[in-house]
Write a structure and sequence with these properties.
Blueprint (H helix, E strand, L loop, with lengths): L2 E6 L4 E5 L2 E5 L7 H10 L2 E6 L6 E3 L1 H12 L5 H12 L3 H17 L1 E3 L4 E3 L1 E7 L8 E8 L2 E8 L2 H6 L4 E2 H5 L3 H4 L4 E3 L5
Parallel strand pairs: 5-6
Antiparallel strand pairs: 1-4, 2-3, 7-11, 7-12, 8-9, 9-10
Helix pairs in contact: 2-3, 3-4
Length: about 190
């Protein structure tokens, strides 16, 4: 359903307060018919209020490229985006879709996607009477540059609280023994 407002030539919006009409910085909204009626009473015109489009979700790498495209004084923004799409896409169809999405992000605005986060509970490794709260489990973590199987947490929430989360790119770069662990995705409310 569309909403309409009434604006005068000075740039003020019509507001209706009970029996009085006045002009202000923020519009009252009307149905299309009511807005047309108000225009007949006041020397003004109807403005259709349109909801702003949602920002386009992009990866961190895409966001860096878009920032470069916005800040460039040497290259045209479209050329920066086109080159990126050409180098990133596997085929021409994907290139066209990627370029279109990135051009929309450039114009509308963008937000960087949060990478999915995981914890790596090691099956069959339980630590009894952990902190006198009951059973806990070992988690694989990367500490001091090396992967180790010695992080202990009561549950997923506790593992997140202790910072035992990893991304898919972290998992892809792990030793084989870590890749054998089934990762558990952490939801937004746990992060």
């Amino acid at each position: 359903m569309s909403m309409y407002a009434v604006k005068n030539d000075v740039g003020s919006w019509l507001a209706v307060d009970g029996m009085d009409d006045f002009w202000c910085d923020f519009p009252d909204t009307f149905s299309k018919n009511e807005a047309k009626r108000q225009v007949q009473i006041h020397d003004a015109h109807v403005v259709e209020l349109v909801e702003a489009p949602a920002k386009v979700v992009v990866s961190e790498e895409e966001a860096k490229m878009l920032k470069k495209a916005k800040d460039t004084t040497v290259w045209r923004p479209a050329a920066v985006i086109s080159k990126y799409a050409y180098n990133a896409a596997k085929d021409s169809d994907q290139e066209v879709l990627l370029e279109d999405r990135l051009m929309r992000a450039y114009v509308i605005g963008w937000t960087v996607e949060k990478p999915k986060r995981y914890v790596l509970p090691m099956p069959g490794t339980y630590y009894h009477n952990y902190r006198m709260h009951g059973n806990a489990q070992y988690y694989a973590v990367k500490g001091t540059g090396n992967w180790r199987p010695d992080a202990i947490a009561l549950d997923t929430d506790d593992a997140v609280k202790h910072g035992y989360t990893v991304t898919q790119s972290d998992i892809d770069a792990t030793p084989d023994w870590v890749k054998a662990i089934t990762p558990m995705e952490v939801t937004d409310d746990e992060q």
